[in-house]
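Shipment paperwork, digital attachment
Item: protein structure file
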Amino acid sequence: MKKYVDFLIKGFYAGILISIGGIAYLAIENKIVGSFIFSFGLLTICIYSFNLFTGKVGYVLVNKINYIIELLISLVGNFLGTFAVGSLMRLTRFTNYIDTATNIVNTKLNDNILSIFILSIMCGMIMYIAVNNYKKETDVVGKYIAIFMGVMAFILCGFEHCVANMFYFSIAGIFSLKVFCYLLVMILGNSIGSIIIALYYNKYKENQK
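Attachment content:
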């Protein structure tokens, strides 16, 4: 039981950190600078070994079946963390952040499911590459470049990150059946994208032995 609580707590903190990155992105008009600062969230998650669903799902291939439980509990924690921060921000003076997030959310909800799915797959690929490079790269500079370039790439390309979007939906205060359906599509797309790259990486490692 204790380990499940630990998964939830680590997921909760990861959701908070992604939300802080999201707040920075909403606060900065320059998208390039905003996406760079957003990277603080993923970098801190990696340093402190918090549980971010999109950073962990690709490793489902090299873990036992009960790893799926860790993933799902972490995802719940991610949602709770983003919901908590998003809801708290709605109580502050930063009403302009709410307006900006609402515009972002409406763009997503006006998109079609197939588009959301494809954009989510692309984000999943980038997330696995960024996190795995951080884990495996021995060069310190290379570890951090992977994180910053990865986050900036998915944001500037407009790809869909399920946990970041949980925060945007939360701060915008927009939840509906359609929102949860779109989130499920994003979760599935992020998972598939991550696993696609993980499949190649794991096969490549085997060929190098």
